[in-house]
Write a structure and sequence with these properties.
Blueprint: H1 7-15, H2 24-35, E1 71-74, H3 76-85, E2 91-96, H4 101-117, E3 123-128, H5 131-134, H6 138-151, E4 157-160, H7 164-171, E5 179-183, E6 189-194, H8 199-207
Length: 210
């Protein structure tokens, strides 16, 4: 079992992949970018995730009951295998974490989009980076499950197990999270979003694939 690392000692490395030096300045920049406010290094509460933000993401104030999202740990080859299994449909791959404020805030909108799209729509696959902070034990799994349930997320999620450099290299992640990649039905990367996704933008991007 991977030992959980202190939140304050790792968050700057999480957002700035591969950064060799952890500093107070970098940590503060990470927290400002990820939570939208300069707060301490405590992960944000997920209980209020169902409120959502911004009218352009739709009304997600009341999260509809939904079946629990499938969840398992996976490394880079495991993520690639999950993408391969979804060939034939567009796929949105969303990297997030429970300690990332904007990540948690966008989950209800993504969950609502997935429910409305149904079987005929694109597939969504989440990848939580909580293991970097909380380890690969039950605490991490419980935190991720709760966030997904609170947000009404119906689609499968993975908890990434591994270091940041292989992940950043494999999926060309430039900096921080949330970070999402849209693949077409053939598995080609067609667009990426650094930061939260506005659902109308996602719909427009999907429309170009038809």
């Amino acid at each position: 079992m991977r030992t959980p690392r202190p939140v304050g000692s790792i968050l700057s490395a999480v957002i700035f992949f591969g950064a060799p030096i952890l500093s107070t300045v970098v940590l503060a920049a990470f927290l400002a970018a990820c939570s939208g406010r300069a707060t301490g290094p405590e992960p944000p509460a997920t209980g209020g995730a169902g409120t959502g933000t911004g009218t352009s993401r739709g009304d997600v104030a009341a999260v509809a009951p939904t079946a629990a999202a499938a969840l398992k740990f996976a490394d880079v080859p495991g993520i690639r295998a999950e993408l391969q299994a979804r060939r034939g449909r567009p796929v949105l791959l969303n990297f997030w974490a429970t300690w990332c404020g904007p990540c948690v805030e966008e989950l209800p909108a993504l969950g609502k989009f997935a429910r409305e799209a149904g079987e005929g729509g694109p597939d969504l696959l989440g990848v939580s980076l909580d293991e970097w902070v909380y380890g690969d034990g039950r605490e991490t799994e419980d935190k991720v499950r709760k966030a997904l349930a609170d947000a009404g997320v119906p689609y499968s999620n993975l908890i990434y197990e591994g270091d940041q450099d292989p992940l950043a290299s494999a999926f060309q992640i430039p900096a921080g999270i949330p970070y999402s990649i849209l693949y077409d039905a053939a598995g080609h990367r067609v667009r990426a979003w650094a930061g939260t996704i506005e659902i109308p933008e996602l719909r427009d991007a999907l429309a170009t694939l038809k």
